[in-house]
Write a structure and sequence with these properties.
The chain is an alpha/beta fold and 238 residues long. The protein is 40% helix and 11% strand. It has a five-stranded parallel sheet, with helices on both faces. Helix 4 links the parallel strand 3 and strand 4. The longest helix has 18 residues.
């Protein structure tokens, strides 16, 4: 059965199938080997995600060959509790508990799937001020990089506790000079370059889970393997 890779997250996941998006890159990368299934919910935090996870995955049978799931939440949880996006804020201890609950649900549903936690990205506070939310005229960012870092560390900690892989996007992006505008278009959401970086990190994590292109068989015979004089034999199931 052709395996699936499920992407579960907030707006950075929802828009990942757009032009130059990390999900679109992933679907292209695995085009003959796996189906990439999108479950992205703009604005969601882990509290809401944990409440709807069962419904979000209801169309994917428990018997489906789900090989991996990325869990990418935290950017909204880390919204400051006294700024314009306070309604999305989730306290740090609850964030960790919610991640553990989501992972437990996914592990129960697809025991063999590789679960990959992705931390929130860093925040460029000047970029957030330039793109205020909901007409906010305070001149203050509704997120800070320092707060995002606390949630990123909590995400990595949960992954370690649960024996899961983690992509520390918050740290990885900040290894590059000029990350604020190279990777983030509005101080939070990803540019094409940021999407490319995340795609590469996900591919590395999938390879570590033995889900590289080399490890996955191509779906149906390659054109070069088809005998034009006996095509029926080539398509017979073994």
């Amino acid at each position: 059965m052709r395996p699936s890779i499920v992407l579960f997250g907030d707006s950075i996941t929802e828009e990942s199938f757009g032009e130059g998006g990390w999900g679109a890159h992933l679907a292209n990368h695995y085009s003959r080997s796996a189906d990439v299934v999108l479950r992205g919910y703009s604005g969601y935090n882990t509290r809401w995600a944990s409440l709807v996870a069962d419904r979000a995955f209801s169309a994917i049978p428990a018997s489906a060959a789900v090989a991996a799931v990325t869990i990418f939440f935290g950017a909204n949880d880390a919204s400051l509790p006294d700024r314009a996006s306070a309604f999305q804020h989730v306290p740090l201890p609850e964030y960790g508990d919610n991640l553990r609950a989501i992972c437990a649900l996914l592990r129960a549903r697809w025991p063999a799937a590789a679960l990959i936690l992705v931390t929130p990205p860093p925040v460029d506070e000047r970029g957030r001020v330039r793109f205020p939310r909901n007409g906010d005229a305070s001149g203050l960012p509704e997120r800070t990089n320092e707060a995002a870092g606390r949630y990123a560390r909590a995400c990595v900690e949960v992954a370690g506790q649960c024996g899961l892989r983690a992509i520390d996007l918050w740290s990885r992006m900040q290894e590059f000079p000029g990350w604020e505008t190279a990777f983030l278009r509005d101080g939070l959401h990803l540019t094409p370059t940021g999407n490319r970086l995340l795609f590469e990190e996900v591919v590395f994590a999938l390879r570590d889970a033995n889900l590289s292109l080399e490890a996955l068989p191509a779906d149906l015979p390659l054109c070069s393997d088809i005998d034009p004089d006996n095509a029926v034999r080539c398509f017979e199931e073994e």
